[in-house]
Structures are given as structure tokens and as C-alpha cells.
Fold each of these.
Amino acid sequence: MTVATSALMLGSCLASVPAAAQTTDPTQARVVIDPDANASGINPTGRAIVLTAPVMDGQTYLGDATVTLDTDGRASFAAARLLALLEPRISATLITTLRTRLTAQGKLERADLQGVGVTIRYDPQALQVTLDVAATSRASRSLVLSDTLSRGPVTYTAPAGLSAYLNIRGSVDWVQQGPDNGVAAPVTFLDGAIRAGGVVLEGEANWQAGAAGVDFQRRGTRLIYDDRGNLVRWTAGDLQTLARGFQSAPEIAGLSVSRFYSLLDPQTIIRPRGTRSFQLDRRSTIEVRVNDQLVRRLELDPGTFDLRDFPFTQGANDVRLTITDDAGRVQSFDFNIFLDQSQLASGLSEFGLYLGSRAPLGARGPIYTDDLAFSGFYRRGVSDRLTLGANAQADGNGWMGGVETVVATPVGSFGGFASASHVNGVGSGWASILTFQRTITRSADRADALSFSLETRTRNFSPIGAGQPFNPYGIIVGASYNSALTETIYAGIDARYSKGRDGEPDVRSIRATGGWRPLPQLSFTSDLTYERDGRGGRFTAFLSLTYRLDRSSSLRSDFDSRNNRGRLTYQTYHGTGTGAYNFSADIERSDIGAGANASGVYYANRAELGFSHFGTFDRDLGRSTGQRTSLRFGTALAMADGSFTVGRPINDAFAIVRPHPSLKGADILVDAVGTTSAANTGALGTALQPSLSSYSERNVLVTAPDAPLGANLGEGSFRLLPPYRGGYRLTVGSDYMVSVVGRLLGPTGDPIALVAGTATEEAHPEREPVPLFTNSAGRFGVTGLAPGRWRITLVDLDKTSFDLVIAKDAQATVAIGDLRPRAAAEK
């Protein structure tokens, strides 16, 4: 078969057209590809033909183009189409050059493209246009190496418009033997939140009825609003201040604005992820290894590439790129990057600014004063290797200010804080600390860690609110080295020296640590310390042996040479969620006495229940000297958009799960794993999932093993992105559980065979239509409908439609018989 015959067999892709003409209209401009000298007979038909041909960049498919083959063998297609395909492949400067050339002459030819490093030809054998782009002409492309794959838009279930919860935790002590015999007044700890319209009101309090002094103490109350667009949290009320460096955390009532990625966007990786560029002249295979582990293998066409988002670990990272081109040549590139957990990626910033009046906690609650106070800090990633920050504090009695830095270098990470202060009646002072960290990778699963710190403080240095400063040491120096010697043995050593002032003796210490795991279930650790201060030198040893009885239980024995204390401990953990429990018991003896203790916690569906018992005895475990038993409980009351439930205490966000009436009260299990679940609806008919984290994506799984046959549980899960202290009302099941079977007839009564259509609910036209299809006899079956009026619309030329009415009490499968078109039915 000839090439021309192959082209003509494209059927609908061929048409008779006039020959390409030169034009200055950019929308009509053409790319002209002159035929090769040996490509005679490309189009022997005697007329121009049109076909759709793929455009290839080497082996990469770029898209299709409508190509015209003239009678003389020239191929041409729209220049705008070529530029659109080339724009992401070559540099912006070269695209501009081609556009200028196109405007000047009204077309693009081979010579114009060759001038910017692009060769174009038409391949009559493959019926395709092939481009060869020089590596130096290609635009730099980014290749993401992180494990997080890009994905399309995600739809999350909306949280409740109004939600609230109250955690109630309590304890009561019974002293059988001791200075306060009898049952003590129960203590109740309260904390909760109300969320409405994106604003959260939260607070904490203590209550101890019958206790000496004040019964009720409010610990704090505040309003919080999260601006997710700018990742900023606004707070008003009793502030919870956070500090950096040498700062204190003063109790302030007022306003604050802050950004902490761990709270507002915990899924974002804020550490530097690394970027490296390289150029390929030929198609090549790239292997990327980090710390001797293969993280990605890529096949790339020629061009310039930026590798970014390396999956780095804390500490040193050894990166190797191995490039093998299509001719078999191999090149390797190595580089090292050291990352510290406190680094910020370039352009990212964290801050906390707190302003108001001093409000120390009193017996009844915060005591609001007229003393203004400010505390704040700001940190920014100046580059992927440098993070800088500043902090300041002030009140009516003094001020403190400082700076911080983190610098990542090939040899390790350097960090430092420096602060100055002035307190009325005390004077001025300063303090600084310098740290160094380095991780030395030995293999894929073993590494050594080296650290060093140097801290200095003057006598009068003091953050605000600290009272009279106490700085007994002017210089504190520390260093440590830890090594994983083998897969089962590790060892480390650290040393510390503190230079005393004002009569305070110097303190020197050196400590050696080690661990050995001779068997998978047996491990031994040791801690040997020598310390010397004003009382002289002394040697202490701490030894520990742990034997794992099974996956959930263990025995541990400890010996501490200080007071010759020995302890034997048993621990066991069983299950997660409802029905889980843990228990521990230990017995110890030392030179100052002996003791026996036991404690446990049971996690019920609606509460947490715990106990503990502490007993003390003489050294020989003979005479009892003290016995105390404590009983504890914790529960939560929760509400979301009118639904109420009781469950275990809520940590942050929560979800109330309830069954749809179609489930006939069947028990719903939430996040079931094996024979256990996080919660179940039970007798109350509602369940509480109390362990959702704000701004962290979560799938809540639901199942109802005893649901009626044919009940619709939907997808069996809800995808959530909870807001801070947010609540959800999740309904399992729906009315859309009816299956309908019937037959569609035409106006003359003949079956409508083999036609597709959809069923749309008249009361909810916004819902996705349900597809259906008729068989050769006109019969159809459709599932997922609800009681009510529906309209069936076929995809034939007349858009034939039918009315379908499902009775209110319809269940499972409904046979509706024959349906006629609406127009015929009205007649």
C-alpha cells in the first residue's frame, strides 16, 4: 500500500481544500514544512487533502493538528497551533522570537524554526509531525519528587453551621491510710467550645464542690477566628501565649494574631524541600537516591529540569543523581543538604503577637490588671538555607528583645538566640545560646548524631514577669555524640560543664548511654553518669531490661544506683476505640521505702473510666505506711445542627453520626477495625467520633451490619477537613434506596428498545440524574431512587420523557409496569 493510499483511507479526516496561501492574519497563518528530497509521491491524488495528525516531541505526544498536504508534497498547519504546543516546551524568549517572525512574514518555515533550535518534519510513514528541540532551547521544567501526588479538586462534607461540646472530667480520691483519711471532695475539670459562623468561643474551668476555699475556678475564656486564606489566627480574651528563645509566656488578656503551620495547615511541609537543576542533551533515564534509597526513577526527553521537593529526613541528606542516556552513557552527580526541624522554607513565615493587660490566674479565675503587656516573635525563611527571626516582650516593669537564626550548611545546622533585657530594680543583662547539629548517615537505616551547645547569661538577665532573676551559671557548655553501631546496638556519650558565679560551684558531668536488643522481644538499656560539683564527685548507674510478652504486653525491670531503687513493672494495652483498655502495675524497693502501684483505663462508648491505687510500705514490704485509691471518669456532651449525643472526651473537632430512618434503628459502627470501632450509635441512636484534628483530612468510615436488606449506606465514608473545634452531623443512609423495574413504550405501544436515558427527581433537579438503559424488549431497571415524582428522559432525537411516581411507603424494589410518553399519556 502506498503512502498516499494510507492517507486517503483516513475517511472522515480527508477533504478537498485549496492550497495554502500566504496571509498576514495571525489566525490564518500557517507553518510550512517543505518535503524531503526523497519523499516524492506523498500526495499523488492531484488535489490537496486534509488529515488529523499527531505532533510529537521525540517520543512525547504533544497533541493533534489539522495538517494540509499540498499536491507538491508540502505539509502545513496552523502556526497558532504549533506555538500553543511549543510554548510549554521552549523558553519564553524563543516563543517571542517566533511570534515576531510570524507577524512579519505571515507564516513560519523550517528555517525560522531552526533559528530557535527546533527542527520540524512530516513523517508520511507514521502520518505524524515530528519536532526535535535542542536542549538549550527548552524551557526549564519542574519535576516533583515528593510522595504527595497532585490531585484534582476534593469535595469535603460541610461542617455544621452551629456546633458545641462540653468535656466533663472528674476524679475522687479515697485515702485508706495517710494524713487525710476518708473520701476527698470530687474534682471536676470542664472544657468546651461553641462554634458558629466560623467563630469559636472556648473556655476551661475547675469545680470542686465542698472543698476548702473557692468551689469554682474559671481558667480562661477566649474568642478565636481562623483566616484560612491568609493562614492567620485571631484571638480575643484570655490568651494562650507561646514563646521563642529566652522569652517567658506571660498571662495576658487582650488580642493576639498568630500563624503556626502546625495548627493552621498541618499538612503543609514548611521545611525546605530542596531544588537542583540539570540539563539533558539526549533522552535519558534518571535515578534519584536520597541517603542511598531510590526515591524516583524518571524517563525524560532532552531539556533543562529542576528537581524539587526531595523527601528529605531530619539531619544530613546525601543525594545522588544517576543519568543514563539512550546511548548508554552514565553520569552521576552528588550533593549534600542538611535540614533542621526549626527551619522554614524560603518565603514562609511564622509569628505570634500578643497584646493586652497582665491577667495572672487567681483562686476564682484570671485577675485582670491595669498593667499593659506585650509579647511577640516573628520568623521567616529568607532562603532554603537561612531562617531569621526576632522577638520582644515588654510590660510596665521592663522589656526584653532578641534575635534568632538557623543556618543549614553542608557540614551541619547552626542555630542561635541572643537576647537583651532590662527590668526595673534589677538592671540590664543579656543571654545567648549557640547550637550545632550534624547527622552522619552510615547506611539506609543507621546514622550518627553530633550536637554542641554553648549558653551564656549575665547575672541580671531576666524575661518579663520572672521576678528576681536567678542565673547561677555564667557559661553552660554541652556536647553529645550518638551512634547506631549495628541494627541491634546503639551507644552515645554526652558531656556538660557549667561555670558557676557568686559562690555557686562549677558542675561537670559526663554520661554514657547504650542499648542492646539481643532478641526481637528482649532489650537492654543503660545510663552511666559521673558528676562533680561542690559536694564532690559521684557515679550513678541506671539499668533497664524489657521483655515483650506479646504484641500488647511487656515486663520491665529497672535499677537506679541512687538510693538503690529497684522496680518491676507490668504493662498491657488491648484494642482501640470502644472496649479498649490498658493496665499497668509495679512494685519497687529502695533505701527509703517500698511501694506497690496499679492503674488502668477502660474506654467505653460514652465515657472513659480509670482507676489507680498507690501504696507505700516499709523497706521490707512489711508494715503499710500509706494507701490511696483514685477513681477517674471522662465524658463529653456534644451538639451539631440540632443533633445531640454523649461520648468520650473530645480533643479538638468531632462528628455526630446518626442513622437515617430507612435503617430502622440499626446499630451504626464508626471507624470499625476488626471487632472494634471508635463508636457506635447504640441505644441513644447517635454516635460520637471525638478524635478529629482540625485542618487535617480525615475519612470517617461507617458500616451497619444489621441494616435492612437493600438499605443504602452511600459510599460508606465521609471525607472531612474539620475546622478548629468544628462539629459535623453525619447521616448514614437516605431515602434513595428504591429500585424500579418497568417497561418503556412508544406512542404506538411498541417497546422502546436499546435506548439510554436518565431519571431526574422533580423536587430536587440539582441532584445528579440517575442513568438507565432499556433492553431489546424495552425493559429497564434503575436503582438509587427515592419516593416522589421523577421524570425519565431518553437521549433519542425527540428527547422522549415519561412520568414516574414512587409511593411514599415504597421500599426495596418496585415494579411499575408499562410507562408511556408524557404526550401519549395526556391523550
Note: The helical segments are 3-8, 79-86, 92-105, 110-114, 261-264, 822-826.
Amino acid sequence: MEELVRPTSTVSEPPRHIDLQAMPEIPGIPAPAGARTVKTATAHTAQASNATRPASVESATAKSHPASWEKRYRAWVIASDIVAAFVVIGVSAFVIDRVAPQDMHAFGTALAVLCALPVSRAWSPRVLGEGPEEYRTLGRGLIAAAVLVALGGLLFRALDVQPWVFIVVPVIALFAFPQRYLLRQVLHRRRRRGLCLLPVMAAGSPGTVADLIARTKTEAHVGWRVEAVCTVDGGGAGSGSGEIDGVPVVGRLEELSRHVRRGGYRVVAITADQYWTPKRLQRLAWDLEGTAAELVVAPVLMEVAGPRLNVSGVLGMPLLRVTAPRFTGGRRLVKEAVDRCGAAFLLTLFSPLLLAIAVAVKLGDRGPVIYKQRRVGKDGENFTMLKFRTMVPDADKIRQNLEVDNEGAGPLFKMKRDPRVTRVGGLLRRYSLDELPQLFNVLSGRMSLVGPRPPLPEETRQYAPDARRRLLVKPGLTGLWQVSGRSDLSWADSIRLDLRYVEDWSLALDLVILWKTFRAVVAGQGAY
């Protein structure tokens, strides 16, 4: 009989199996009687893992522990935060105390930061490298530190703490956030090379498991590597298959806890399957107690996430609350203000560049500088979108002769080598500089800095009901589609990303998208 053992090699190497009759050495646990000790594992098919295991084998439980890279990365994060805080506080103490000496202010601010960050889970291994949540916990920790400093000033009647609350703590944030970002970039680069990945055991139906495996491969920065699978019958994706998308199926769902304990997996990902009842999930959670494995259950509402999901207990039952998306209210007013102020600032900042591009387009072929096109905005209302002209003046007429060469997905028309694009236009498109005049659309209130892609009227006539939900908000100068592949996306992926933004919008998400847009534009990824 066989069992999966988590490999320590890179992601390119397949997981290995061992024969349970040839038990590996486990410190402090004697090998079962009759078993021979070996150092290496030999590969077998996963079907034999369904056999009954001896009781002596079940006692040899291998518990997983944080890898050395996790400890080192957490130590680097903590050290960078502390160094940033102490340097800023030290310099501030030198500067501020020259005007109004207060020795305890610096000490109190340092103590507040050291207490607030761990209490806010800003150093928790579960959030480090985990998307916007890491930045949110860091922000909450620094806000809590500022509140503690203010309360300390009131408690000890030190009313001159305002500079420490409103200047020193924000300056600490200006150093801490970029440091976190740089450390994450180092971590993500290593993960793309197959390093610093968490071993995952996936359990569910073959279809949902295959989707999870595909996502972990395309989004390696998340840090998951599915190394083994359990299904309801112990079979793979096809008849007689022992694997799913190259990952071996090691057993049935009822054997999941035994495989997890013996394999040393760090994450147990539960995907949709009729087998999973509340009672079985509860039993699985109990069986995994005492291990370092984190149980992650994927809800049926796969594309709903972020602030709309909340878990609460009602009548003694854990319920997943899904709030309705909000398209009006205070947060939308803030977004409107940020859009218009941001557009005005960017137009002022880029005015010399706008002028230079206009001159280059005009000198290229003496045609018009601005290309005006009807697009569909919020609630299906048409508006005129502005762009720098990147094609020959009669491009719309020529398009009819190029329909047979269309490379776009769905109703989109795209060509990687479009003969209508001018020499100057090709450069503008590569770095998305042709879209800068859309800042005037944002300033006028017809577009947003971040939102779904603005569609053409003929595209919307082909929309399915779900795709029409893109029109519930203003279209954006950039969006999830812009930072996730741009023109390389399929039509289905483009719709999925736009709907995710519509449903799960937040100000924090807008800031992340704007930053990623800058990176994508500089690299010229997916633009043509």
C-alpha cells in the first residue's frame, strides 16, 4: 500500500509515494514490526492508497511545522517595521525635542507601535504576503498606535502630543508600507521560481479541484502548490485515471485526515462536492486539530469576496452572510471625489507629455490628434470617449475588410498586428499613452479612474444578462482587466474580472489596481 509524502524539491518535481511496508524513519517513533526502514520513496499508482492501514502505521503521525523560509520572512518583516519605527521616532525626537523637550513622547510612541502591530495581527504569518489583507492589518495597527498615543497624552495631561499623532505615526507608515511591498516582491519572485510555496492537499470533486489547481499555477504569488488530491471515489479526472491535472489522487475523501497528518501538508483546501455535509466538515476540523494544517473551505459563491462576506453565528449555526453590492452611498461619494481630484492632478502633471504626444500624432500623418468614439457608460448611457488617434483616419471603414483576421475574444475586435495602426500609434498603444485623454472623461464625471472596461454599443447588444451588470457602475480608465492581462484575456475572463470588481469594489481595491496599472503600463504587458 502506498502513501504520499510531501517533497522538498522545487515545484517542477512530481510528488513522490512510499510503500508503507518500507516506513521512513521518524525520530522517537519505532517502525512497525516487519517494516524495513528506507530513506527514499518509489512512485506507484494512487489507487492502492484506498486499502486498509495497520493500526501501528496510523500511530506514526507526521506533524507539519512552519518552514524555515516562513520564519525568516516573518523575522524580516518584523525587523523592517521596527527599524522604520525606531528610525522615524529617533529623528522626530531629535527634531521635536529641540523645540519642546518631552522625553516620554518618543518612548510612548515606540511602545504604542510595538503593542499595536502584533495585537492588530500585522505580524501574523497568515496575513504576510496575502494580498490587501496584509496592508489593511498594517494600516489598522498604525492607526491603533496613533490612538494609543493620543489617549496616553490625555491620560497623562500631555496635550502637546499632536505632532506625534498626526506627523510621526503617518511618517512611520510612509516607510513601513514600501518596505512591506519590497519584501513581498522578493517573496513573489521566489514563488514564481517554485520556491517558498505551501504544500496543499485539495479535496472535492475532480472539476472543482482541477479549477483550484489551474488557479494556483497561474497565480503562483499566492504561494500554494497542490501536491495531492482526495476525491469521493479515489479516482482522477478520467476513467481509470489516478491524477488530476498532473497532481496524483492519493485516496478517498473519507481518508483525508489520515493523508493530511501523514503527508505534512500546510493547507487543506476543500472544494465543492456533494460529499461535504456540515457534520463531515466539522469532523474533519476536529481530526485536523493538533496539526499545523490550515483548513480552507471554498464557498459555492466563488466570485463573491472581500467586504461583502461575513461569518456570523445565528441560532448556534455558523452562517456566511453575503451583503448586497452598494452602488450609492458615502463610499461612492468618496470615490467620485477621488476620481475628479485625481484626474485634475494627473492632467496637470502630464500636461507637457500630453502636448508632446499631440505634436507627434499631428506630425505623423497630418491627421486629427484626438479620436472620438461612442462608448456605453453607467446605466447604459452613451458618451463620447476621447483617445489619442493611433490608427489611420479611415480605420473604421478598413475594419470591415479585416473581420476574417479578428483575434479578439467574444464581440471584441483585436489584432496583434493591425495594419491600421500608425508608427506613432504603436508606441502609444504599447504603453497605453493613447488613453491619457480619457482623464477629461473622468473629470467630467462620465468615467472613473478604476472600473470595468468601457464597451462599444455593438458589444452591449450581444451581452448576456450577467455581462450587463458591468453597466451598473462607471467604466474605468483602468481596472482588473488592465492589470490581469489586458488584450491577452479571453472574453470570459474579461467578464469575470469586471463583474468581480462591480460586486466587490472597495477603496483599497482601487488603490491596489492603480498601483498595478502603473507596473503593467511600464512593462507594456498585454497591450496591442
Note: Residues 330-523 form one domain.
Amino acid sequence: MILGEFRRLYVIVRVVLSYGLDELIPRMRLTLPLRLGRRLLFWMPAEHSDKVLGERLRLAMQELGPVWIKFGQMLSTRRDLLPPAIADQLAMLQDRVAPFDGMLARQHIEKAMGQPLETWFDDFEPEALASASIAQVHTARLKTNGKEVVIKVIRPDILPLIKADMRLMYRLASLLPHLLPDGRRLRPVEVVLEYEKTLLDELNLLREAANAIQLRRNFENSEMLYIPEVYPDYCSETMMVMERIYGVPVSDMAALEKQGTNLKLLAERGVQVFFTQVFRDSFFHGDMHPGNIFVSFEHPENPQYIGIDCGIVGSLNKEDKRYLAENFIAFFNRDYRKVAELHVDSGWVPPDTNVEDFEFAIRTVCEPIFEKPLAEISFGHVLLNLFNTARRFNMEVQPQLVLLQKTLLYIEGIGRQLYPQLDLWKTAKPFLESWIKDQVGIPAIVRALKEKAPYWAEKLPELPELIYDGFKQHRLLLKSVDKLTTELRVQRVRQGQARFLFGIGATLLLSGTFLLSQGHAMNSFPAWLMAGGIVSWIVGWKRTA
């Protein structure tokens, strides 16, 4: 490790110990070295023992910066895994991170716009409306049309901190394959690379603006999801201006219940929105934690989500989408043989994997889980158990699926919070079956014909010429093959002659040497034999040229 990485590692250890998070280390034999190491670091005492564990964990992640805040945001949605006291504290990382000074934000906006703020906006509010790990937002009003907007501004000097953490993560990821028996299968460097890409994408607000415009177009006039309007004329890499929205935070259960929101329908629509983005659009919001999701005040009986912060989006190629959908359906139907075959066909496990053994291993893991009612099954637990099982079969982590898995865990966590009886499987299965049927049935053939028809119509007049050119190229190819075959035949003959001459030359040289050793030095015959051997070698060497 370089000096900067050691320094950052020291900061991380100091923060963790100063907030007393070492108490999270379980007391077991495996963790004994860690607990002994903690005692050796006696000069780093816990300084916040007056605070509860959840608050200490939140403050530590907040102090460590955006990489850790993002991790805390993800954990906050897993209320089925964390006690409420910790989950409630981590939820504050979604939009209540300590803001930076509003005057600094004003200077940042004026620098980006190149003119005083009042040239473009009225009623600018220096106090941040919300503050997150990467940026914070301020309210204002457009001078041109009087519409209320929010101005999103990137935190100053955040890039060096992210790069320092990412360098450390890369270093640790490169060591992991050497420390763990199956560390290479986890592909830690590729996973960190994907995570770094998503973080750096969030720093470019022009990218976020483009993502929001695309998502808004995908869900135009939708009852399920609303994406606020973006004003691209005011956007740059470090600031973005968009429509101000009013809604209930999806995590505010009391407010949702007070206005009579249909929570069952709201939870189901969250699942439907996710699968629509993934399979219909192949363009999904990859940061759907509760801080980025609101519920419209209008029509609580027919609730509509409002999505913001589109800095992280993901997509899957056609093959991954098909394998993923078929895997889900096979799980729903408990067709473990199909699951095993799909993993082999997709290349997620090596092609020489024993399908029967893999099927049995999956069955062993999943059957006890499916004994519960479907509404009680956590998709997160299923994934975890499957990954543990797959270690025996050298299944590699798929970096392109990591963001998708994280987003699905977000959705499940939110859905279970809204409606604990949410049956994720029952909600998703009809959608996936319909999508698969649409992809492989007659509608897919008709759609492909429609898509290709303009291209075929354009090329049809050229068809005779293309056929003639094809035959011509075929004849030329046959001539080239015949010529190459003849040259190879001649080369093989020359090589055979060269080997024969090398053999003759070696025989003559050995014979001449033997005769000389038997006392025939005065006779010229051995010399003639050796000379003949040398000549044979020269001729053979020329045959190989």
C-alpha cells in the first residue's frame, strides 16, 4: 500500500473505534485476533459511549464520507435484517446528511452559470431543503415562468475523498483472491470497478439530467410513477435544475396512513415499476432508497410514486434479461433443473458443471425456504443462500447484475415496510410470464418483421447485385483455397526432402567420423564422406527456405 492508502485506512480504523463500533464484532473464536488487536490499539478509546449504537453507526458512516453513506443507505432498507433502532438511524443518511454552507452553494451556482444568481432565479433559499452524500438541493423560482424549482449542487472537494476510498477498496479487492479460497470467484475487483463507475456517474449532473429525462419519457402518463421535469438549459456537470415536487416520503408511514393511502396497491406498484424498468425499458433507477422516493398527495386510493435523484441507472442486455426472467419463473415454479441449466447456458457457472449435482444443491437450499408462505419469503435471503451454494460450483459474481440485485433489495425492503404481507413472487410472476411470452411468441416475430421491414425494403433492389457479388466472392475464395492448398502441398514436399537430406548428411558425417576414429586418417574417403554430409545439410537447409 502507498502512504496515502495507509493514511486513509488509519482514518477508517480510528473513526470505527472512536464510535465504539468494535462492539459489533461477535465474540467467537474466529474473531479472537480482531478483538485482541482492538486491545492493542488502546490509544484509540471510544469517545461517544453516551450515544446509542444506531446513532454511533450513522455518525461514523457520515464522517467517513459518500462511499460509506451509500452503504448505510442500502442497509437502512433491510428492516427484515436490522433492528428498528439501527434501521431508523441509518434511514437518516438518505436525505439528512449534514449540509454544507448555503453561501458556498450560491457561489458554486454563480460560477457554473457565469452570472449573478438573481439573473436566473428568484426566492433562492440558502438553507438546504435536503442534503445527501453527493449533493444537496436548494429551492428557488425561475424568473422566466415563475415555476418553483430545486437546484442540486455537488458537494465541494468530494472527488479526492471518493478516489481515496476507492483506491483503498481496489487494494483490498486485489488481496481478497489471495486471502479467501473462493475470492477469485467473487470477482472483487470487477465489483469495485462497477461500484466506482456508479459513484463517479453521480458526480456528473448532466448525466443525471439525461437519465431523468429518459425515465420521464418512459413513464409518461403513467399512474404508477412520476419523474419531475428537468430544465436542461440551466444544467451543467456540477448543478442541475428541476421541477419542485410535493409528496409524502415513502418512509413516513404515519403520513401515508393518515391520508388513507392504499398501501397494498402502493407496495405492489413498487414491484411492478421495478420490473417494468428492467424488462420493458432495460433502463432502471439504480438508487431507489426511501430518500429518493415520494408518494403523491393526489389520489391516495390510486397512489403514484414520485422518483428523484436519477444519478445511478442500470441496464441489462437482451441475453441477461431473458436468462434472468426465466430464472425467476423457474424459481417460482420450483423447477430447479431449469435453474441449473440456465446458469450453465448463460455462462454464470463453468460449462463442465455437473447439472444434476447443481440441481440437487439448489433444491437442498430452496425447498426449506418454500415451505413458508410466499409472502414470508425474503428474496434477499434466497439470493444469499444461492450464492453460498454456488461456491461449490465456481459460480462467478456477475458485475452487471450487482446493481440490479441491490435495487431489488431496496424495492423489497420498501415494499415490506409499506405492506408486510407483500407477496413479491405473486406480484412479479404474471409480469415476467407475460414478458417471456412476448419475447419468444408470435408477437415477437411480428415485431421483428416490422423492425426489419424498412431495412429489407431498402436492400431489396440491390438483391440481384448482392447475389452476383456473393457468387463472385465464392469463386475467388475457391481459387484462393486451391492456391493455398497447392502451396501447402509443395511446402510439405520440400520439407520432406529437407528432412531426407538432413538424415543423409547426418549419416555421412557420422560415418566419416567413425572411419577417422578407426585409423583411416591417411585415407581421403572419410573426408569425402564428411564433405558430402555438409553439402547435404546445406541443400536441405535451402529446401526449408
Note: DSSP finds 20 helices and eleven strands in the chain.
